[in-house]
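User: Hi! Is it possible to get a structure for several chains at once, not just one? Here's what I have:
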Amino acid sequence: MSSIWLTLPVVLSLSTALTIFFVRRKALSVEWLSGTSVVLNLIVAVFLTQNTISDGIQVVAFGQWQAPFGIVFVADHFSAAMVMITAIIGAISVFYAMADLRLKPSYGSYHALMHMLLAGVYGAFLTGDIFNLYVWFEVMLIASFGLMVLDATKAQIDGAVKYVMLNLISTLVFLLAIGLLYGATGTLNLADLNSKASTNDPGINMMLSALFLFAFSIKAALFPLFTWLPASYHNLPSGVVALFAALLTKVGVYAIVRIFTLVFPLVESGWQPTLIWVAALTMLTGVLGAASQFDIKKILSFHIISQIGYMIMGLAIYTPLALAGAIFYIVHHIIVKANLFLIGGFIERKYGSSQLAQLGGVYKTMPWLAFLFLVPAFSLAGFPPLSGFWGKFLVIKSSLQTEYYWLAATALLVGLLTTFSMTKIWSETFWKKPEVDNTARALPANVQWLYCIPIVVLTTLTLIIGLVAEPFYQFSVQAAEQLLNPDGYIQAVLGGKA
Amino acid sequence: MLNSITDQVNLPKNPDNQWLLLIFPVLPVLIFVTLISIYTPAGVSWNTQWIPGLDINLSFKLDGLSFLFAGLISGIGALIQLYALGYMRNSESRFSFHLYLTLFMLAMLGVVMSDNILLLFIFWELTSVISYLLIGFNHQNKTSRKNALQSLIVNGSGGLAMLAGLILLGAMAGSYELNTIMAQANIIAQHHWFIPSLVLILLGAFTKSAQFPFHFWLPNAMAAPTPVSAYLHSATMVKAGIYLLARLSPIYAHSDTWFYTLVIAGCVTAVWCTFVALKQTDLKLMLAYSTNVALGKLTLLLGIGTELAISAALMFILAHSFYKAALFMVAGNIDKATGTRDIGQLYGLRSVLVISMVAGVFAALSKAGFPPLLGFLSKEYMYKAATEINGWITFILVMVNVLMVALTIMLIARPFFARHGDAVPEAKQVETKAAMWISPLLLAFGSFIVPLIGLSWLDHNVIFPGSSDILRSAAPKASALWHGVNLPLVLSVITLGLGIVVYYIYPTVSAFFQQLNSLVPRAEDIFDRIMDAMMALAKWQTALFQQQKLSRHTLLFFAVLATVLFGQLLSIPLAMFDPLSGVAFYEFGIALLLIGAALVCTLSQSRLLSIAALGMIGFMTTLVFMIYSAPDVAKTLLLVETLMVVFLALLMRHLPHLTTVPKHSVKRKVVNAVIAGFIGVSVTMLLMAITSQPMDSSVSDFFAENSVPGGHGRNIVNVILVDFRAFDTLGEIVVVVIAGIAAVSLLKTKAKKQNRIQSLIFATTAHIVAALMLVFSVYLLLRGHNEPGGGFIGALIAVIGLSLLMFAESPRYVRSRLHIKPLFIALAGVAISLMSGVVSLFFDKPFLTGLWWKDVIPLGTPLLFDVGVYLAVIGGVMGMLLRINEELD
Amino acid sequence: MEIVWSVVVGVFVAAGIYLMLEKHILRLLFGIMLLSSAVNLAIFTAGRLTPGELPLIDSQALLPPENAANPLPQALILTAIVIGFGLLIFALMLFYRAYKETDSADVDNMPDSKEGQ
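Assistant: Yes, the chains can be modeled jointly so their relative placement is included. Here is the combined structure:
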């Protein structure tokens, strides 16, 4: 039964989380459970992706209640890619957490909550029902709340208050939007909404889509609703923040893409011009924010925002090439961003601080780390032949072709500024001589390995995606075409009743 | 043999390393030899697919133009690697230095041999990155880091502009492959993207080749070790821009924009940098600025674009690479020997650095244009080309060359031949290591030998094919050193002569230019100011968005929502609203009460009153749900409201009065009210518009129809919760349990306070009531599938019962009565629900399919699911309640 | 009759948002609760209000009575109420803890750690 691959990510993660909660005091059991689970999930994700490529869009109707009545999970190319990358990052984060969070009192709970978070993310990426999407968003949200307040210090509580408040706003508006959309169309199934929503009055649709856009923009940290991110991310422990940075905002981006291709196709929804402006402003404000910071984690947090702008830019332009670029970019960015946060976390563990003023001379002490940093840093900045270049190339090319010249210029400028702040980290952390007395802490060998293997894996992935770009490109193009032309999706879910 | 070359002192290194280092000069030699052997003037190409979907392929071509460059890159590369073996002998990171140089060489070869413009771009950017790493090689030094960054930013911005230009070019031609682009030259010339792409590509070329006003990064790159300066910043990387201009000439060179831009830029660069060069006193800076001048001249020549100009450019590229690299290496030797590069402090080195002197003199003669060296050849042709065009250009060229001659003489005469009485300078023995003098000597001799015996080979393999690559119609005549006495020769003589004159009045000239320069703003300062402005902008906007105050964040968010909604409001058709028919009096009443309660809650200054208002709202809402036939919802809401009031009551005493916190200003309150009002109005209008249309009830009808046959239940709502849409419910209990865990982890006190209501009557009744409620809760659970009830309601009733017990006795009492930790109860609940769904997987059915033992008794997995829900909610909520009670007084 | 309740929803939304813009943590909490109620009511209203029959099927019948209320929004609201309850309690605990840490109930008085200079 091939639908098992659609079910397993969520079920496996949930089961793991529950079991870990039961044994959370025994670190070794926790680690075995956690590690095995993510490895299994990796295998599941591979099978899922393979099935999607060879057999087309995968659908499972839970409880055997067909869509649009029951809840369905759907894996098209886009969702499969997201599940795959989540599995990879999940595995990486779990192993990294074994090094970084080991000494925390609530160590076991960290693992459990991470699996809960992953369950929510998987659910969000796979679901084909909008209320179900809300439920998985809530699972993700509450798991992230939990991770934020575990063993929290005062500073972390302060950050958590802002994070919770502003995300609650997102959640409430999302729920309101769902209720109103249901009232207007009578259905909750995404594929069904494609036809039913188009019969609505366009004014109503504009307001409904406004509510959705607002709610998801908060989650995705778009301009000007991104302010919660820099206020809360930098206080988190590194083992956690990599997971947050890599995944949480991307779920928001995913939701925007899904809603504005399937339910309210962007060009008819009237939001395209706004989205273009938002993309440009997001790119700019994010990178300018990064340029003014002097702490590795803060710089990287602002960069998340800036890079989200590129993804939305791809969506906003709305051609197959642009959307392919956005999808490529999402995958590339998750890998690179997680990697950079992991490296930052490792440096912090070794040197006791992530502030640039306290660091220096890492090039001499750990030259291999320097190389491992250079790759994702320049990939983020978009230097060829690394993965970031291809993503940027696709979106810039599409914006030139569609004559959005200012948008292309902004994207290029932001690339330059990204280079500027990446080299700032490089220069201050690796090159310059440390200004304060700063000797590296020695770590036990296995801890060091657990820190470094994830970093090496991610760097290798970045190199592969960059150098062997063709298959990834083709995949992205297919995903984009599926999104822009949802008939295949609708057919698979509703079985020809479209 | 290696030892004699590097004259190794006993460094504590593994001797094997030394042999390894020998690879580095050998590799470029191999490449050079390969290139010469496979090259034919007709051109050699090789390609393979890389990313066919994007039309970016690994296409390489070795034609005349690329052969010239590739030969220089690999040949001079070999010599530089050899030189570096000696120069970097004492450096800790010498291995990485050589590695970087090799990587750079490969990237540069990629640039000049790419037959696909995007592939070219990829290598182009790689050269920028490696240059950054090399300039910052002495990374402990702040200036090195700063200048490395500067070069990266300047080159990077040019590169990005160029990317846009190349994308446009590819789009115009329909392909990124150069041969296709060349074939489409006519179509491209007519396209409206012609000029924009030209400008963008020029930005790339000008930044890389340090044309005014982007020239300043090159002298600053002298912070790099001398081998880098000799290789990248004179012979190879900076010529990449020139290469690109040459390569794309067939597309763009016919346009006026090309002509004027290149000629003006080239002239301005040459003149400006000459002036600046003359006030320098550091050997490397003098050489750097003169490289700028040379690049300006090359740009000028390519701008002119005639047959002669192109031949001159090709020769000049060759000549300049030879002599400039040699001069840099000589300067490096002087630096190593004396420890200084300041020309004011150098004298009399001719006895100490003999071979360097010989090399230096020959290189200088070539640079000055003394026959029969390469430099002379190229200068002749330059004058020929210039005189063909325009008198002004010729004049500028002559002037620049005169000053450059003076500079050159200064460069060599002073350090080697100047005398300070009979004093012999203190200098280290540098030339004992052969690596330090072989390379410059070879290059110097090359400048001398090539024009004498290599001209025809050069013509056949470089000049002729190269020219036709740049200018399709070119058919140059054979090159020769002697063309009889003509204008160019005269000009050359004048140049030399005047140059010598200027040399003698050098100090005056230098001082003059010092003064001149101080009046004019430096391009670098403008660059710095732009960077500072950017930083200031960054700080300002960050401060703007990064409020410390949460209320500002929320204000921003809601303001955005208000704008976004209110703007659309007018597009809702107004004719849709139903008249207020059929509304009963009591419905109005309840609505008014609700509105009133909401207002009370908003405006009240008392916590108690606000909580009471909220409670009222809760209970009124319950009534609403009852009126409109939603029994399960009503009951759940009632119970939840009760619990909320309990929680709030517990906590209220520990949170301060509402008056302790300063209020917003009146103005701010008005703003808040307006925003809130906008949003409220929008939601109302939207809701009214939506509900005025009939509802599509197909989905609900399905539930109604299938509730009994498929779901085996008569309470449709419950069937939806545990069967039709069970996955939602599963997620929901997960949320509740995690919320419980997270909330509990926020209160980590060890103290267990005892909140008891001290009253015997209460205690006794509490026990009885609690027991009854527990029984009732199980009853509700079991009947929920067919009557109002279900897991949630049952659980909440149980929770209320247990809280009564908790207040009557103590949290500890309740915990012991439960036997199992609430957390585990909750987790068990979730696990049971999960398992009930997993069971169906074993029967090859999708997750959460309801399996019924229906023929015997109506028992099925959805009922089990409901039990899981029951336990999960009890565990989660009780966990929170118990902990809060223990925490607070 | 949905008009009446639409107005109530609007008032709740406005009141809730106004409270969420305030500075005292309790008022923020009240605002969240109000907004939550508003959204629940909105879902209910959007599903169309029928004072008619309960969505229960008699033991003899296979279908609910003619004017039965729409069961789907009821299920959605139930889920939303419970999720909201969980989130609300968590928020309450968080605010309480924040108050304990900073001795101030003013959300504006809770400093971020110092922004990068």
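The two ends of chain A are 25 Å apart (CA to CA). The mean pLDDT of chain A is 90.

User: Great, thank you!
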